[in-house]
Amino acid sequence: MMTPDEVRQMIAAGLPDARVEVRDMTGTGDHFEITVSSAGFKGKTLVEQHRMVFSLLGDEMDRRIHAVQLKTKPL
Fold it and tell me: What global pTM score does this model have?
């Protein structure tokens, strides 16, 4: 089980300028709604932006995170 704050910290560590909002969608600590805005996304496609965020979540996507509803946008 993960907390929204743990997820937020993992993303912020890799995208320090990012505005990150994380909501536990089910209360079970494994389904999250995540919104990330970052200047690092500028010039990147939506797929590239999502890959950046998923890479920051790393192994947790295979272990403790079951589902993510992700929204990204450049600052």
Answer: 0.93
